[in-house]
Write a structure and sequence with these properties.
The structure is a single chain. This protein is α/β, with parallel strands linked by helices and about 500 residues long. The protein has one domain: Alkaline Phosphatase, subunit A. It is about 25% helix and about 15% strand. It has twelve helices and 15 strands. It has helices at about 30-40, 55-65, 65-70, 85-90, 140-150, 155-160, 175-185, 235-245, 255-285, 345-355, 370, 455-470, and strands at about 5-15, 40-50, 50, 100, 130-135, 200-205, 290-295, 325, 335-345, 385-390, 415-420, 425-430, 435-440, 480, 485. The chain has an eight-stranded mixed beta sheet, sandwiched between helices. It has a five-stranded mixed beta sheet with strand order 3-10-11-12-13. The model has no long low-confidence stretch (mean pLDDT about 95).
């Protein structure tokens, strides 16, 4: 815990794969700005999002909770307003948290009484607690206005993103967000010690469409990129099904695959460039040594591996994400690469400790502060866990005549999976009772099944234990005896004044 609260720069790079850092040895991609940061930061090489796609992954990131507890199951699934989150916590501790970008969190319908409220028709709402200074949720209206002011007249946000290679890179959505943040930063007086700032930069790229802007669209030759992991011939029916979906099916030709990868790397190169601008501005202002920097993502990207693109299913490419933290004055962690399994639910507890705030009891994650301090915790998780839910395919408007017959029809509760991956094995449990296991010691590509009961049973038992140990704990540590003993829920203040 620090004596003086730092500035906080909390950056998410949407759909940024964890292996796409040149500092971690990627053969093709170049990330000089992030590489430079890594020399003064702790890099978490096995950092995982706990859920996909955007809303579930971000809900875990912002609340420190597993999907099994926060229950944001899919894009369009509401976030329970009772939960604490990173913005609310920062505001309670003296910050005015500013958002540049988006958070993809749907409103809890219990906080609105108007059935015509437009927030009931979108998942792209703002996380409660943020001051939304630049709204870059779809359809990216401020950016489209910016393009029109520079002679580009498209009103179609998808077309605007797809055509980024045709415009100068200075007009990209990444450049636009960075310019807005730097203007805001320059408008502030040099921050005194008692008035730190908190900014969340939520970048869209390298999220699809796979179209890097301007010169970045040709920064990587498709002939130079590596080809993805091909799908196994021995695969589960779920894998087959998602390989057939237009939104998640990888390109069928080698040229298409290479182009997709080259454009993705170009988007990474561009966002890395703009992060370099941000870091330079912090140094010029004298904020560098007073600012904690967190770099992470909401989820990963298949990028053609296993015949898939986007973020879907159980393979780790959809969940392995970038994870870097620079904590000023904790220089024992500078340049450190941590190979232990860390998860995006660890970010909120970490920020709590560095700004001197208590960690909410809802949190399933653990603070990364020991790693940042150069220590190795005696007890740490031995695996990463993530969840994926597709129940939205079965949720329809009641007026369509196909509403689910609750409580008798439990179809929704079967449309999900959970994965645990350790150094040697991966285990997948489906909600309908199916399971898969992979021998990663023999084959790191997730193409060699495990079927031996003496190896699979311990993985199954471990997942059951994990679920039992991470059930909601908000009231479970309190005993109604002698006026209440044990762990009281967060926010109960009257007890101390009795």
């Amino acid at each position: 815990m620090v004596d003086v609260r730092p500035n906080v720069l909390f950056i998410t790079l949407d759909q940024f794969r964890g292996d796409c850092l040149s500092s971690l040895g990627h053969r093709v991609v170049r990330t000089p700005s992030l590489d430079a940061l890594a020399r003064e930061a702790t890099t978490f090489a096995r950092h995982y999002s706990q859920a996909a796609p955007c809303s579930p992954g971000r809900a875990s990131l912002y609340t420190g909770m597993y999907l099994m507890n926060h229950r944001v199951c899919f894009n369009g699934s509401p976030l329970d307003d009772a939960f604490d989150n990173v913005a609310r916590l920062a505001r309670r501790h003296g910050y005015a948290p500013a958002l540049f970008g988006y958070t993809d969190q749907g409103i809890d319908p219990r906080v609105t009484v108007d059935a015509s409220d437009p927030r009931l028709s979108t998942y792209q709402g703002v996380l409660p607690g943020f001051d939304w200074l630049l709204d870059l949720s779809e359809p990216y209206t401020p950016w489209l206005t910016h393009l029109r002011e520079h002679g580009h007249t498209t009103d179609d946000h998808v077309a605007a993103l797809t055509s980024e290679p045709d415009r100068d890179e200075s007009l990209s959505i990444t450049s636009f967000l960075t310019d807005n943040f730097l203007t805001w930063l320059e408008s502030r007086e040099v921050s005194p010690a008692d008035a730190p700032w908190f900014a969340h930069l939520s970048y869209l790229r390298p999220h699809p469409p796979y179209s890097a802007p301007g010169k970045w669209s040709t920064a990587y030759d498709p002939d130079d990129v590596e080809l993805p992991i091909s799908p196994s011939d021995d695969r589960h029916g779920f894998h087959d099904a998602i390989m057939q979906l237009p939104d998640t099916r990888a390109p069928r030709t080698e040229s298409g695959m290479r182009r997709m990868r080259a454009q993705y790397y170009g988007m990474i190169g561009e966002v890395d460039h703009h992060l370099g601008r941000v870091f330079a501005a912090l140094r010029e202002r004298g904020d560098w040594e007073d600012t904690i920097i967190v770099i992470t993502a909401d989820h990963g990207e298949q990028l053609g591996d296993h015949g898939l693109r986007e973020k879907v299913g159980f393979f780790e490419q959809s969940y392995h994400i970038v994870g870097m933290v620079r904590a000023p004055r904790l220089d024992a962690g500078y340049g450190r690469v941590v190979d232990a399994f860390t998860e995006n639910i660890d970010i909120l507890p970490t920020l709590c400790e560095v700004i001197g705030a208590p960690i909410p009891s809802q949190c399933d994650g653990r603070s990364l502060l020991p790693w940042l301090s150069g220590e190795t915790p005696e007890e740490w998780r031995e695996m990463a866990t993530w969840e994926y839910d597709w129940r939205q395919l079965y949720i329809t408007d009641e007026t369509s005549g196909s509403a689910l017959n609750w409580p008798h029809d439990r179809r929704l509760e079967r449309q999900h999976l959970c994965v645990q991956r350790d150094a040697d094995n991966a285990y997948v449990q489906f909600g309908n009772g199916d399971w898969l296991a992979f021998d990663l010691q023999a084959d790191a590509s997730w193409r060699t099944p495990l079927r031996s009961p003496d190896r699979v049973l311990p993985l199954t038992q471990r997942m059951l234990t994990w679920r039992s140990q991470h059930a909601n704990r908000v009231l479970s540590g309190l005993k109604l005896e002698h006026g209440g003993i044990g762990r009281w829920p967060d926010g109960v203040t009257w007890r101390t004044a009795r």
